[in-house]
Specification:
four-stranded antiparallel β-sheet; alpha+beta; 2 domains; three-stranded antiparallel β-sheet; elongated
Protein backbone atom coordinates (compact mmCIF):
# COMPACT_ATOMS: atom_id res chain seq x y z
CA UNK A 1 0.00 0.00 0.00
CA UNK A 2 2.86 2.40 -0.64
CA UNK A 3 1.66 5.61 -2.25
CA UNK A 4 2.41 5.74 -5.97
CA UNK A 5 1.78 9.45 -6.38
CA UNK A 6 2.97 12.44 -4.44
CA UNK A 7 0.60 14.48 -2.38
CA UNK A 8 1.16 17.78 -0.66
CA UNK A 9 -0.02 19.33 2.56
CA UNK A 10 -0.41 22.90 3.69
CA UNK A 11 1.55 23.27 6.91
CA UNK A 12 1.36 25.92 9.60
CA UNK A 13 4.45 26.05 11.77
CA UNK A 14 4.67 26.73 15.48
CA UNK A 15 6.45 29.71 17.02
CA UNK A 16 5.71 33.35 17.69
CA UNK A 17 5.22 34.17 14.01
CA UNK A 18 3.94 30.99 12.34
CA UNK A 19 4.41 30.57 8.62
CA UNK A 20 2.24 28.80 6.05
CA UNK A 21 4.10 26.57 3.61
CA UNK A 22 3.80 23.41 1.51
CA UNK A 23 5.31 20.05 2.36
CA UNK A 24 5.00 16.43 1.22
CA UNK A 25 5.52 14.69 4.55
CA UNK A 26 4.29 15.15 8.14
CA UNK A 27 6.04 18.00 9.91
CA UNK A 28 7.39 18.38 13.44
CA UNK A 29 5.17 18.02 16.49
CA UNK A 30 2.73 20.89 16.79
CA UNK A 31 2.62 21.61 13.06
CA UNK A 32 -0.89 21.95 11.66
CA UNK A 33 -1.68 20.15 8.41
CA UNK A 34 -4.37 20.72 5.79
CA UNK A 35 -4.96 18.41 2.85
CA UNK A 36 -4.03 16.20 1.19
CA UNK A 37 -3.65 17.88 -2.22
CA UNK A 38 -2.64 16.04 -5.38
CA UNK A 39 -1.47 18.99 -7.51
CA UNK A 40 1.61 20.22 -5.65
CA UNK A 41 2.49 22.84 -8.26
CA UNK A 42 -0.89 24.53 -8.07
CA UNK A 43 -0.83 24.13 -4.31
CA UNK A 44 2.41 26.09 -4.05
CA UNK A 45 0.97 28.82 -6.27
CA UNK A 46 -2.16 29.05 -4.12
CA UNK A 47 -0.22 29.24 -0.86
CA UNK A 48 2.08 31.86 -2.36
CA UNK A 49 -0.94 33.97 -3.35
CA UNK A 50 -2.42 33.60 0.15
CA UNK A 51 0.85 34.50 1.88
CA UNK A 52 1.41 37.54 -0.34
CA UNK A 53 -2.13 38.79 0.18
CA UNK A 54 -2.09 38.32 3.96
CA UNK A 55 1.49 39.59 4.33
CA UNK A 56 2.69 36.40 6.01
CA UNK A 57 6.35 35.52 6.12
CA UNK A 58 7.85 32.64 4.16
CA UNK A 59 11.41 32.82 5.50
CA UNK A 60 13.32 30.25 7.53
CA UNK A 61 11.89 29.23 10.88
CA UNK A 62 15.25 30.24 12.34
CA UNK A 63 14.75 33.87 11.30
CA UNK A 64 14.75 36.12 14.42
CA UNK A 65 11.37 37.77 15.00
CA UNK A 66 11.09 41.36 16.26
CA UNK A 67 7.55 42.63 16.62
CA UNK A 68 6.78 46.34 16.56
CA UNK A 69 6.14 46.54 20.30
CA UNK A 70 9.65 45.18 20.93
CA UNK A 71 11.38 48.05 19.12
CA UNK A 72 12.47 49.76 22.33
CA UNK A 73 14.75 46.82 23.04
CA UNK A 74 17.08 47.82 20.23
CA UNK A 75 19.25 50.86 19.70
CA UNK A 76 18.30 51.43 16.06
CA UNK A 77 15.40 50.59 13.81
CA UNK A 78 15.54 47.20 12.16
CA UNK A 79 15.05 46.50 8.49
CA UNK A 80 13.29 43.73 6.63
CA UNK A 81 15.44 40.75 5.75
CA UNK A 82 14.09 40.40 2.19
CA UNK A 83 12.40 42.37 -0.60
CA UNK A 84 8.92 40.99 0.02
CA UNK A 85 8.22 43.80 2.48
CA UNK A 86 9.21 46.47 -0.07
CA UNK A 87 6.94 44.76 -2.61
CA UNK A 88 4.01 44.88 -0.20
CA UNK A 89 3.89 41.09 0.15
CA UNK A 90 5.06 40.69 3.76
CA UNK A 91 4.44 42.56 6.99
CA UNK A 92 8.06 41.80 7.95
CA UNK A 93 7.84 40.51 11.52
CA UNK A 94 11.60 40.10 11.21
CA UNK A 95 12.10 43.87 11.19
CA UNK A 96 9.55 45.19 13.65
CA UNK A 97 7.08 46.45 11.05
CA UNK A 98 4.01 44.69 12.51
CA UNK A 99 2.65 44.04 15.97
CA UNK A 100 2.25 40.50 17.23
CA UNK A 101 -1.54 40.89 17.39
CA UNK A 102 -1.58 42.29 13.87
CA UNK A 103 0.39 39.37 12.48
CA UNK A 104 -1.68 36.75 14.32
CA UNK A 105 -4.89 38.41 13.08
CA UNK A 106 -3.71 38.04 9.48
CA UNK A 107 -2.73 34.43 10.15
CA UNK A 108 -6.15 33.65 11.62
CA UNK A 109 -7.85 35.10 8.53
CA UNK A 110 -5.73 32.80 6.35
CA UNK A 111 -6.58 29.78 8.50
CA UNK A 112 -10.29 30.63 8.43
CA UNK A 113 -10.03 30.77 4.65
CA UNK A 114 -8.48 27.31 4.52
CA UNK A 115 -11.33 26.06 6.72
CA UNK A 116 -13.88 27.72 4.39
CA UNK A 117 -15.12 29.88 7.25
CA UNK A 118 -14.41 33.14 5.43
CA UNK A 119 -13.83 34.34 1.88
CA UNK A 120 -12.28 37.63 2.97
CA UNK A 121 -9.07 37.04 0.96
CA UNK A 122 -11.15 36.56 -2.20
CA UNK A 123 -13.10 39.73 -1.44
CA UNK A 124 -9.87 41.69 -1.11
CA UNK A 125 -8.66 40.43 -4.48
CA UNK A 126 -11.98 41.27 -6.16
CA UNK A 127 -11.83 44.83 -4.76
CA UNK A 128 -8.27 45.33 -6.01
CA UNK A 129 -9.12 43.83 -9.41
CA UNK A 130 -12.15 46.11 -9.78
CA UNK A 131 -10.14 49.19 -8.74
CA UNK A 132 -7.41 48.40 -11.26
CA UNK A 133 -9.98 47.89 -14.01
CA UNK A 134 -11.70 51.20 -13.25
CA UNK A 135 -8.32 52.95 -13.50
CA UNK A 136 -7.66 51.28 -16.86
CA UNK A 137 -4.73 49.37 -15.36
CA UNK A 138 -5.61 46.23 -17.23
CA UNK A 139 -2.29 44.42 -16.76
CA UNK A 140 -2.57 44.93 -13.02
CA UNK A 141 -6.18 43.75 -13.13
CA UNK A 142 -5.06 40.61 -14.96
CA UNK A 143 -2.51 39.87 -12.24
CA UNK A 144 -5.21 40.24 -9.60
CA UNK A 145 -7.42 37.92 -11.64
CA UNK A 146 -4.65 35.31 -11.62
CA UNK A 147 -4.46 35.63 -7.84
CA UNK A 148 -8.20 35.15 -7.65
CA UNK A 149 -7.99 31.96 -9.74
CA UNK A 150 -5.23 30.55 -7.50
CA UNK A 151 -7.07 31.36 -4.28
CA UNK A 152 -10.36 30.02 -5.64
CA UNK A 153 -8.62 26.74 -6.55
CA UNK A 154 -6.99 26.59 -3.12
CA UNK A 155 -10.31 27.06 -1.31
CA UNK A 156 -12.14 24.50 -3.46
CA UNK A 157 -9.34 21.96 -3.07
CA UNK A 158 -9.23 22.41 0.72
CA UNK A 159 -12.99 21.81 0.90
CA UNK A 160 -12.72 18.69 -1.28
CA UNK A 161 -9.86 17.29 0.82
CA UNK A 162 -11.78 17.83 4.04
CA UNK A 163 -14.91 16.26 2.53
CA UNK A 164 -12.97 13.22 1.32
CA UNK A 165 -11.67 12.59 4.83
CA UNK A 166 -15.04 13.18 6.49
CA UNK A 167 -16.77 10.83 4.02
CA UNK A 168 -14.75 7.89 5.36
CA UNK A 169 -16.85 7.62 8.53
CA UNK A 170 -18.73 4.35 8.85
CA UNK A 171 -18.53 0.75 10.03
CA UNK A 172 -16.62 -1.33 7.49
CA UNK A 173 -16.66 -5.12 7.44
CA UNK A 174 -13.64 -6.79 5.91
CA UNK A 175 -14.19 -10.41 4.87
CA UNK A 176 -11.66 -12.82 6.33
CA UNK A 177 -10.07 -15.59 4.31
CA UNK A 178 -11.32 -18.31 6.65
CA UNK A 179 -14.59 -16.69 7.68
CA UNK A 180 -12.97 -14.55 10.35
CA UNK A 181 -14.67 -11.34 9.19
CA UNK A 182 -13.70 -8.20 11.08
CA UNK A 183 -15.64 -4.97 11.60
CA UNK A 184 -13.84 -1.62 11.76
CA UNK A 185 -15.20 1.61 13.19
CA UNK A 186 -13.72 4.25 10.86
CA UNK A 187 -14.13 7.95 11.57
CA UNK A 188 -12.56 10.72 9.48
CA UNK A 189 -10.38 8.17 7.67
CA UNK A 190 -8.88 6.71 10.85
CA UNK A 191 -9.63 3.36 12.49
CA UNK A 192 -11.03 4.07 15.95
CA UNK A 193 -11.79 0.46 16.95
CA UNK A 194 -12.15 -3.03 15.53
CA UNK A 195 -13.75 -6.30 16.59
CA UNK A 196 -14.84 -9.61 15.09
CA UNK A 197 -17.75 -8.95 12.75
CA UNK A 198 -21.00 -9.56 14.66
CA UNK A 199 -23.34 -12.22 13.32
CA UNK A 200 -25.55 -13.40 16.16
CA UNK A 201 -28.02 -11.09 17.95
CA UNK A 202 -25.86 -11.09 21.08
CA UNK A 203 -22.76 -10.16 19.09
CA UNK A 204 -24.65 -7.39 17.34
CA UNK A 205 -25.82 -5.91 20.63
CA UNK A 206 -22.26 -6.01 21.99
CA UNK A 207 -20.94 -4.27 18.90
CA UNK A 208 -23.82 -1.75 19.00
CA UNK A 209 -22.62 -0.73 22.48
CA UNK A 210 -19.09 -0.22 21.14
CA UNK A 211 -20.00 2.18 18.31
CA UNK A 212 -21.20 5.19 20.38
CA UNK A 213 -17.91 5.26 22.28
CA UNK A 214 -16.09 6.25 19.10
CA UNK A 215 -18.80 8.28 17.35
CA UNK A 216 -20.03 10.66 20.05
CA UNK A 217 -17.00 12.99 19.83
CA UNK A 218 -17.20 15.97 17.50
CA UNK A 219 -15.48 15.45 14.13
CA UNK A 220 -12.17 17.12 13.52
CA UNK A 221 -12.39 20.51 11.90
CA UNK A 222 -9.85 21.95 9.52
CA UNK A 223 -6.39 20.63 10.25
CA UNK A 224 -5.48 16.97 10.59
CA UNK A 225 -3.09 15.59 13.25
CA UNK A 226 0.36 14.74 11.95
CA UNK A 227 0.35 11.33 13.68
CA UNK A 228 -2.76 10.29 11.68
CA UNK A 229 -1.61 11.32 8.21
CA UNK A 230 -0.09 7.98 7.20
CA UNK A 231 -3.19 6.08 8.35
CA UNK A 232 -5.51 8.52 6.58
CA UNK A 233 -3.55 8.22 3.35
CA UNK A 234 -3.63 4.42 3.63
CA UNK A 235 -7.41 4.35 4.00
CA UNK A 236 -8.00 6.98 1.31
CA UNK A 237 -5.82 4.95 -1.07
CA UNK A 238 -7.50 1.66 -0.14
CA UNK A 239 -11.05 2.81 -0.82
CA UNK A 240 -9.98 4.66 -3.97
CA UNK A 241 -8.40 1.49 -5.35
CA UNK A 242 -11.22 -0.77 -4.10
CA UNK A 243 -14.46 1.20 -4.58
CA UNK A 244 -16.53 -1.98 -4.26
CA UNK A 245 -15.39 -2.17 -0.63
CA UNK A 246 -17.78 0.69 0.07
CA UNK A 247 -20.60 -1.82 -0.45
CA UNK A 248 -19.52 -3.42 2.83
CA UNK A 249 -19.91 -0.21 4.83
CA UNK A 250 -22.79 0.78 7.09
CA UNK A 251 -23.49 4.33 8.31
CA UNK A 252 -23.13 4.97 12.02
CA UNK A 253 -26.83 5.84 12.17
CA UNK A 254 -27.75 2.22 11.47
CA UNK A 255 -25.84 1.12 14.57
CA UNK A 256 -27.03 3.99 16.73
CA UNK A 257 -30.68 3.36 15.93
CA UNK A 258 -32.27 1.60 18.87
CA UNK A 259 -35.35 0.54 16.95
Amino acid sequence: MNRNRRVGFIKISTGVAPRIYVGTSPGPDGTLHYGPFTSIGRLREGVRALNDLMGLRDCSLKMPIVFQEQGDLFRSASRAACLRHDLGQCTAPCGGFVTEDGYISRLQTALSFLKAKTIEPLNQVVEQMAAASENNEFELAARWRDRFDRLEWLLASAVRARSAIASLSFVYTDPGVYGDDRAYIIRNATVRASAPAPHSPIEREAFRALVPQHVAAEPRQGSIPSDSIDEMMLLLTWFRRHPTALNRTVPFAAWLDDT
